[in-house]
Amino acid sequence: MAISDSSSGGDFGTAPGNRTGGGRYLLKRLVGRGDFSEVWLARDVKNARDLALKFLPRVFLQDKNLLEHFQQEINRNKLLAHPHIIPASELVLDYDTVAIAMEFVDGWSLASMKVDKLTHCYSVAEITPHIRELCEALGYAHREFGVVHGDLKPSNLLVSAREGIKVTDFGFATLLRSEASKRGIAKSGNGGMGFLSPQQVMGEPPSKLDDIYSLGATIYDLLTGTAPFYKGEVIAQICSLKPAPMMQRLAELGVQSDPVPPVWEITVAACLAKKPGDRPQSVEEVWQLLEGKPLLKISPDEDEQEDIPPVLEPAPAHETSPPPIPVAPMNVPPRSNTKWIASVVAGVLIIMVIVGLVAASRVFRLANIVSGDGKVYYSASTVSVDKSFNPGTGTDRDIRCMALQPDGKILIGGMFTNFNGVDCQKLARLNTNGTLDTTFTPDLIGNVYAVAIEPDGEILIGGTGLRPKRPARKLSRLEPDGSRDAQFHAEGAYNKNVRSILVEPQGGILVGGDFTTVSGKEHHGLLRLTLDDKMDDSFNVSSDGSSTVVSTVVEMDGKILEAGIFENYNNLNITHLIQLNPDGSFDSGFNAAAYADANIREVLLQKDGKILACGFTTDTNGAPSSFITRLNPDGSPDTSFRAATLAGDAFWSMAIQADGKIVVGGYNETNKQISPFLGRLNADGSMDDSFQMSNATGGCIWSVAIQPDGKILAAGVLTSIDGAPCGNIVRLQN
Question: Which of 111, 118, 192, 281 could disulfide-pair with 155, CB 3.0 to 4.6 Å?
Fold first, then answer.
């Protein structure tokens, strides 16, 4: 990271050799300085690793409410598990310092690298890969969690030689700038003001459309060497003037550079529109425009004649470290229609009355339920924690996936680096009582998003670059003791991540993710490995666009259901749920059009052949609303499934009990604060009042599993239930 020339505002109490966080972190060297912060390379003595500490002005220590606000933002930020986003890990407090801990990237920002160039700017060819990765990261944050960056600019875009662009400071910049200004420590001059939208400079809270403005300003800066407005009365210019075309700016500066293609000029100008409604309405739309692709829209005639709802933006997979996000169809706002609006308002009023009556009767029947927004909340947990399961302090980061071994031991994978204080990189095995199995010693470096167990006990794992010094290896097979299976030759060189693994009944292996090539050969999000660990060339998944597969099931007739994000699949407007024939060809007889707007995170197959799907939908502002349904084998809705409205705002995982009940995990969001959600439905979809988890802290339940004895495992970012610590994993009585 390069140190900027700007002077920082505020006092940070930093110096090489200092310790902070109760002596846990040793400061090594200053690596960056911002308008209101300093970034230091530090050594985490406890976990023997390097990380970055972003120090905030010490005056912030005097405001407990502000520190709590920063902690809430960190809780939201932790969910941003994406290879091109640097998430925060914790708020580090000491008697005289306050800092935010995050991953250390050994690289330079695009702003710093630009200074060393002869022309002080880049060409389109140079920045295209970086802008694609930036769009993937922004799209993921906007759709998955509704998280806005708020201060996007070249100095917040770090370049890692191995991982490409890494976006830093998600969600913190706006809060930091506002609080620093209130305390009179705001930096003089324009600083990063030239990258803010007219709405932001006038004090309005940032939205995803402000990020789109900043994306345009960032591209403008990288291609010309200056922000759209960079001298004089910048705020007034941002609010009232139209920026010069990029080629004109280059000419004004006397810079001899490669021509900027017209499509880039037009797209950047659209991003820099004064009114939010005149800008591209999603990051995916920006990238489509830059690529010169036509936007997928619903024509007015189709909308009017068939009353087809507009296509909403899809959401990707969890990185899980959900994942990088491919370009998706544009979110088209509905057309104005006064009669239609009046009808909807009347309908909503009627529904509110009904919901109120139902909620009131439910409160009368069960005292610990509180109704308000149509969802059902519990004032106390009705789950029973199995205290014989004791993981101690558990993991230091997310658990993203689980698998149960036949002997009862539990495999967990994710983003963690230790378990109960013991060094443990990304994958661990727990004994049946929740303690760490120290005989299992894998050698991994990348995040693990998928884990599956083969009949012979060998373990398949997928994720980011898993093997040391082999970052393209996103799939691997381990022996039961955790050592790498040297006979597994199907690792391949994946250009992007593996997010799901399914061992088929006949022994084949389905591997899903957001990759488009493996060892130079085209594979759009899904491939099959044969029994002898080779790519199955007879399995031909056809897709003209990009695909991200996050969940798969093999149905009773051998057909394959895949959930994720699909762009222009077979030139069809199919976005989230597809059925394939056993040979990988598209099954046109499966029609799940009723769920085109749902971001499906997991699919499961019931014993009767019906299909469960869970996830969430989003409104035009990116706010999520939980979603669960049951489909018939042909993709049509199962009208007998009652689909109770639970309190969760987004569902990410589920499991089916032996009695047919459905356990669902995800998260709630209240006043920008994320908390884990776990609930259960009866087999008909109605709510099981006897099982609800409340008073839980952390982030999200990424994975749930049912043990043979009926006990329930839930893992993710789960720090406590009813005040009792969990260590990110808990076992509950049935």
Answer: 111
**Residue matched to tokens 């998706």:** 328
Mean pLDDT, range 443-447, rounded to an integer: 86
Residue 277 bridge partners (DSSP)? none
pLDDT of residue 362: 35
Distance CA 40, CA 1 (A): 10
Q: What pLDDT band is residue 649 in, cutting at 50, 70 and 90?
A: confident
Question: How far apart are alpha carbons 560 and 553 in whole angstroms?
Answer: 6
Task: Sketch the domain layout of the chain as residue ranges.
Answer: 1-105, 106-167+189-294, 366-395+593-734
Q: Please give the pLDDT value at position 172.
A: 74
Which residues 6+ apart lie within 8 Å of 697 measured at CB? 675, 676, 718, 719, 720
DSSP 588-608: TT---GGGTT-EEEEEEE-TT
Question: Tokens 């205290």 identify what position?
Answer: 387
Helix residue ranges per DSSP H, 496-594: none
Q: How far apart are alpha carbons 153 and 290 in whole angstroms?
A: 18
Nearest of 40, 134, 144, 139 to residue 92 by alpha carbon: 40
pLDDT given for residue 294 in this prediction: 58
DSSP state of 535: B
Residue pair 664/679 in contact by the 8 Å Cβ criterion: yes
Q: Between the CA of residue 284 and those of 212, 224, 325, 493, what are the distances in Å?
A: 10, 23, 9, 26
Model pTM?
Answer: 0.63
Helix, strand or coil, per DSSP, at residue 330: coil
> Can you tell me the distance from the alpha carbon of 421 to that of 409, in angstroms, rounded to the nearest whole number?
20
Residue 714 forms beta bridges with which residues?
A: 704, 730
| Lowest-pLDDT choice from 88-92, 352-356, 454-458, 724-728 | 352-356
Among 322, 369, 344, smallest CA distance to 139 is for: 322
Those residues with Cβ within 8 angstroms of residue 423's Cβ, 6 or more apart along the chain or in another chain: 47, 48, 417
Q: How far is 540 from 585, CA to CA, in rounded Å?
A: 6
Matching residue, tokens 């425009």: 289
Q: What is the spatial distance between Cα 70 and Cα 90, in angstroms, rounded to a whole number?
A: 10
The answer regarding whether domain 106-167+189-294 maps to CATH 3.40.190.10 reads: no
More confident site: 419 or 446: 419
CA distances from 167 to 9, 12, 84, 133, 177 (A): 22, 23, 6, 9, 18
Q: Where are the beta strands (DSSP E) in 138-293?
A: 157-160, 164-167
pLDDT band at 436 (very low <50, low <70, confident <90, very high): very high
Tell me the pLDDT tens digit for each residue of 273-312: 999 989 998 898 999 899 887 554 433 333 323 332 333 3
Q: Coil, strand, or helix at residue 352?
A: helix
**Distance (Å, whole) CA 148 – CA 206:** 7
The rounded distance, in Å, linking the Cα atoms of 563 and 525 is 11
Token pair belonging to 149: 């960056």
Q: Could you tell me which of 393, 403, 487 has the C-alpha nearest to residue 449?
A: 403
pLDDT category of residue 567 using cuts at 50, 70 and 90: low
For 327, the token pair is: 């370009």
Number of C-alpha atoms within 13 angstroms, CB side, residue 215? 35
Hey, what are 21's tokens? 């966080």
Do 252 and 260 form a contact (C-beta atoms < 8 A)?
no
What is the average pLDDT value for the chain, to the nearest integer? 79
Domain at 1-105: CATH architecture: 2-Layer Sandwich (3.30)
Range scoring the smallest mean pLDDT among 5-19, 37-51, 627-641 = 5-19
Helix and strand numbers, DSSP H then E, in the chain: 12, 38
CA gap 33, 106 in Å, rounded: 15
DSSP 138: H
- Amino acid letter, 569: Y
* Confidence band, pLDDT 50/70/90 cuts, at residue 187: low
570 with 543: CB under 8 angstroms?
yes
Q: Which two tokens stand for residue 715?
A: 């893992």
